[in-house]
Backbone:
């Protein structure tokens, strides 16, 4: 065993110590911890090594008792042992550091808009049967295919967490040995929406039991997809709907939702401020219209996304609300970014790309005359790369707000506003 002191927290949530001139990453440790570790992997040439803490000798000042009995084995949360104040400051510092690595200095990063426990409104669980048909249901262990059988999950909204045990029970005996299924749970404004996905054709017994489960727990909707059957509607008690002022959208099964409703509301508030005078708006990577819902209702909006089901849902919601100025189209912006002539004449561009960022689209935006851009990102590193291009193209980074949408996780959301100088 080797004694080390944890000096900092890495971007993946592991503590970092120095040992013989080499960085050592130690999961579930906090800055200021003194721990005994056993080395697990070492990288040749003096790179980083991984270690496991075996004994905690001294606790760092920001260490707290984790809320979940599964912490340390479950891969769902990596930093549950750190104080809320520390994580809010750390996430802000990570955004500042990402910008600094791209030479973007002198920018004031706002205080982190905080998350909290019991607020995650979407989850992707795995169910797997053992040789006797007993089902394990939960998240995988960190960096492993081992499945952690959840008994509780304090990061989830209570309406989702209460369904874990009943779901395990209803699936018991229904999956063949070693067979698995994916469970996508979304909490909409009209109730829980669940999609069960498997590579098997469900028999009448599982369909009836799932329908009874949906009834017993008052689910908005439950669907099955997979095998040769495609998507099978099992129960729909209510349309699973996202209800925003002036726009109600029925969510497709397993659709992408912002993970935290309070963070979503803060995003919409910031976008409403940024778009108050906008008359022609482009919403790129729009999904089902979460950010579209925040802009002035009389503005002319074109929402683009590569997911046909999301665009169809937004179109139906816009038609029902009689928002005739809201136009939609299925468009793969990663493969076919808008060109300068298609950007011309718009007052505002909103973009919320995947973690890889939007390099090709941002290259064109940087040459455009769009007065304002709102960029939402879940990856500070790729955001900083794209921000550098916009700044080099003549934009000013007017504001940037970190958003702790993924509480107890090292992941960081942010919203930034760029103005053409």
Residues:
């Amino acid at each position: 065993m080797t004694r080390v002191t944890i000096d900092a927290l890495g971007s993946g949530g592991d503590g970092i110590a120095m040992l013989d001139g080499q960085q050592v990453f130690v999961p579930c440790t906090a800055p200021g911890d003194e721990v005994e570790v056993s080395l697990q992997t070492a990288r040749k040439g003096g790179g980083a090594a991984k270690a496991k803490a075996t004994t905690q000798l001294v606790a760092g000042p920001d260490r707290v008792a984790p809320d979940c009995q599964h912490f340390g084995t479950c891969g769902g949360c990596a930093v549950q042992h750190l104080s809320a104040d520390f994580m809010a400051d750390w996430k802000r510092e990570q955004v500042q550091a990402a910008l600094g690595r791209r030479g973007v200095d002198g920018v004031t990063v706002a205080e982190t808009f905080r998350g909290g426990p019991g607020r995650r409104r979407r989850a992707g669980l795995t169910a797997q049967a053992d040789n006797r048909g007993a089902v394990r249901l939960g998240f995988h262990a960190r960096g492993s295919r081992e499945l952690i059988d959840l008994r509780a999950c304090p990061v989830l909204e209570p309406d989702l967490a209460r369904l874990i045990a009943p779901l395990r029970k209803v699936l018991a005996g229904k999956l063949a040995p070693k067979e698995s299924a994916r469970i996508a749970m979304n909490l909409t404004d009209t109730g829980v929406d669940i999609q069960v996905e498997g590579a098997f054709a469900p028999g009448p017994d599982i369909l009836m039991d799932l329908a009874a489960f949906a009834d017993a727990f008052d689910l908005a909707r439950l669907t099955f997809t997979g095998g040769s059957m495609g998507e099978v509607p099992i129960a729909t008690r209510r349309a699973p709907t996202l209800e925003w002022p002036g726009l109600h959208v029925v969510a497709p099964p397993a659709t992408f939702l912002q993970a935290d409703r309070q963070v979503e509301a803060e995003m919409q508030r910031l976008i409403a401020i940024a778009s108050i005078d906008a008359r022609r708006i482009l919403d790129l990577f729009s999904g089902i219209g979460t950010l579209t819902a925040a802009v002035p209702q009389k503005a002319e909006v074109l929402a683009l996304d590569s997911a046909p089901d999301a665009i169809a849902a937004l179109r139906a919601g816009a038609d029902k609300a009689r928002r005739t100025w809201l136009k939609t189209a299925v468009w793969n912006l990663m493969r076919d970014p808008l060109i300068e002539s298609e950007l011309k004449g718009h007052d505002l561009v909103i973009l919320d790309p995947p973690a890889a960022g939007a390099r090709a689209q941002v290259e064109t935006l940087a040459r455009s005359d769009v007065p304002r851009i709102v960029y939402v990102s879940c990856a500070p590193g790729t955001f900083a790369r794209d921000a550098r291009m916009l700044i080099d193209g003549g934009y000013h980074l007017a504001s940037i707000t970190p958003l702790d949408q993924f509480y107890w996780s090292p992941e960081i959301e942010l919203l930034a506003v760029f103005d053409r100088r």
Q: What stands out?
A: The longest strand covers residues 49-58. The chain has a mean pLDDT of 95.
